[in-house]
Amino acid sequence: MTSTPPVLEISGLNVNYGLGAKAVHAVRDINLTLHRGEVLGLAGESGSGKSTLAYAVTRLLSPPGVITGGEVTYHPREGASLDILDLEPEQLRAFRWSEISLVFQGAMNSLNPVHTVRSQLTDVLRAHRPDMTAAERQERAASLLSLVGISADRLGSYPHQLSGGMRQRVMIAMALALDPEIVILDEPTTALDVVMQRQILKQLTRLRNELDFSVVFITHDISLLIEFSDRIAIMYGGRIVEEAAAKEIYQAAHHPYSHGLLHSFPALHGPRRELTGIPGSPPDLTAMPPGCAFHPRCPKAFEPCDQRVPTLAPVPLDEGRTVACWLHADH
Amino acid sequence: MPKSPDPPSTTTGPPPDGEVVLEARAISKHFAVRRTLRNFADRNRPVVHAVDDVSLKLRRGSVTAVVGESGSGKSTIARLLAQLYPTTSGELLLHGKPTRVGQGRAFRAYCRQVQLIFQDPFGSLNPTHTVRYHLTRALRIHDRAGRTADDLEKALAALLERVHLTPPERYLDSFPHELSGGQRQRVAIARAMAADPAVLLADEPVSMLDVSIRLGILNLLRDLKERLDLAILYITHDIASARYFADETLVMYAGRMVEGGDSETVTQRPAHPYTQLLTSSAPDPDRIVADAKARAEAATDPAGGEVVVEEEESETAGEPPSLISPPSGCRFHPRCPKAMERCASEVPPRFDLADGQWAACWLYAEDAPKQAAPQEASA
Q: Where does A53-148 show beta strands of DSSP type E?
């Protein structure tokens, strides 16, 4: 997967909530690359900064969120690369959704309850493709719905007439309306049942193969990510602590937090193991512990952990993997 | 509505080692739908069949899980067992005696025995009061506060220690917003334990919590079960956690119990087609080993590759039915891959299988075609 060219490169991204001394550092020094056609999983608990990262990348962050530094470089198929953080509002409006689109967690809240699916789908097209005629828009909306497996006669329905799964599919259809290069899914199936979740994710995988876009898949459910993504980045306390191919992380997690997270999900098959989860609770972003944010909960913490912050570095002897942990640093 | 024959004899669970504390016999709950102009004149007001004909037994020192999708009626069961609202039909037996409490004294006496923990620890604690207030109130109501301030203080400390919030004085005077989700849920559990109940009804106790602390809460509940010999009802949508935590698992679909038995048996050899669908849909990292092989084959053979991805995608495959007019017969038959003629007309009773497992599915009737052995789930 790493052989394909990058489509999105995030480097040194920092996001704060609030200003001055009281600012909360929600995302710190993120370096992340999304390759063309890849599904990148972003896992972490609530408050780990994964959604903030998604909003920062699409510049949807609303105050008091501030991007305090870093670059987000987008590489289009043709033409020059551009830094999303430098775009003027006008350019940004044209760029967003046609290149990067988002699917939010609660489809119930993202669809307007007083408009039909038709008017919400055609609205996107009207804004971005002013040269399309009404009939063309209508046709495109119908084809988008059938793309996600909903019959076109549901165009006239209001959101409340659709089930939760169908609403989420409408959101996906809307995200695909302008053939974006990148689709960011922010907990797309958390509100759905497992049966529906699997159907939607299978459909997404199929659409990705057909339409060839890249996916950033944000969720707290790491067992889901292992099945559906190519690479996984695990976030804790606003930083990426480990990044590797999905299978490798499952087989041998290097960071103690990733290891703990993987052992927080009871398995459905295989031997019944005694599981402990991770002791303690996720860090308070307003009072982060010094050094590695995970050290108060870490079973393997030793002398440098509570003083110096480990940086995300390649794992010796293990190609393509990075981890931010003193256990794996050569010093 | 056809009833399963004689509920007491068919409620088979694990070997009946623990004494049955709370039992539900064929309970149903229907909620009236608001009258609209269209059905104003109808004689039969439409109702939502939230729970139909459910029987279960909660035993001392044992965890019973109820697994189902949202809308399957699993939370309604917890509220019915807590007697927060009356059953439409059927009866509840506490220690073998039928009980039906309304409000007031009888309800309070029932509460002392049966306590409920809610899903949302952010909503179930009053944000304007401290932990001390919440626990003191529960202790006072259930007459366990003792006579002196010293007794009360001891009781409070004991409660917090029981849920592993130590040292107690650090938590007693904090407000809910000062605690993390896991700590809040522990306070909610401590409050339930203040009544010294025999039964604990846990309605999705961990689904709102961060993944890394969920197991801590489940292990705490298990520890309480073992030390205090509690009967626990664990309501969840996550069948893997039911396997981990519960001794017995019951599976619900659209208001009815479809399968039950020992947790290990139900998750490893699901008998009902719905349980099979549920276990095959649950995320399972172990599957990627098999998947990776399939993908590697698909890569070498592009024609065959797409078939793997494009299996079942019929439009209604994932939709549970409307409970206002539920499907006739087995409620799963419109989605069931193995549906027979009979499934659409007759409600299947419970059929007993090996090892205390049972399934409400016509596949297991005496006269059914013999191909239907419980499926090995290792797909």
A: 65-74, 82-83, 100-103
